[in-house]
Amino acid sequence: MTNTPINHLATFANIDLLRQQRTGMPEVIYAASKTSQQSVAIAERILQHNQRVLISQPNAETVAALLATFPHHTCIRGTADRILTIQSPDFVAPATIGEVGIIAAGTSDLPVADEAAAVCSALGCNVHRVTDVGVAGIHRLFEPLRQLLAVPVDVMIVAAGMDGALPSVITGLVDVPVIGLPTAVGYGYGGAGMAALGTMLQSCAPGISVVNIDNGIGAGAVAVRIVQVAHRARTRNSQ
After folding, report:
1. How would residue 7 be classed by pLDDT, with cut points 50, 70 and 90?
2. CA triple 206-212-214, angle to 5 deg
3. Is the pLDDT assigned to residue 111 strictly greater than 80?
C-alpha cells in the first residue's frame, strides 16, 4: 500500500475526473516521470470515481506498487508492462462502438502498439491485432490485411520502427484511415524513431495521419475519434 494519503494529492496532482464525460477521452496516468507513490495515489483517486484506469510507462517499482495496492482488481498488463489497465471488481465493459485494426511491423513494436490497443478497448472498440508483418517480409502482410478489411475495421493503426515504411504501404492498399505510429526501434542513426517518423511524415500515400514517436496513447485516441464519428453515422443511418 502507498504511504501517500489521498488528501495529499493536491501537492502534486489536480486530476481531471470529468475528462471522459467532456471529451470522450479518459485521463491516462503518465507514470514515467512520477514516483510510484504518486502514481498509486492518482490511480486510487481515479478508481474512486471510475471503474477503470490506464497507467502508461510505469517502471518495475510502480508496477509492483500498483499490483499490491489493488489485489482485488483486474490488472491487464501490456507487453513489457508499457501499459497497465486496472479495472474495479464491479467493472462493466462499455458498449461496442466499432472496430480498430492494430498492426505492429515487428515484435519490438508491440509495447507501443499495446498502448494504442488499451485506449481503444477502454472506449468501446473491438481491437483486431496483427503482428510481425513488416516490409522485410511483405508477403506476410497480405492475408492479415485482407482479414481486417473483411471485418471491416473503421481505422487502422500501424506501428513501425526502423525505416517506418509499413504505414505507407498499407495506406496505398486500403480504403480506411491509417494512423502511422513511429516507434523508437532501430540501429544507430535514426534508430530512436526519427527515421520512422520522417518516413511517415514524408509518405506519398494520401490518407495517412501520423502521431509522435512512441505515442501509442495518442494513436489510440485518434482512432477512437474516427470510430466515434463512424458509429454516429451508422446510428443515424439505421434510424
Report:
1. low
2. 120
3. yes
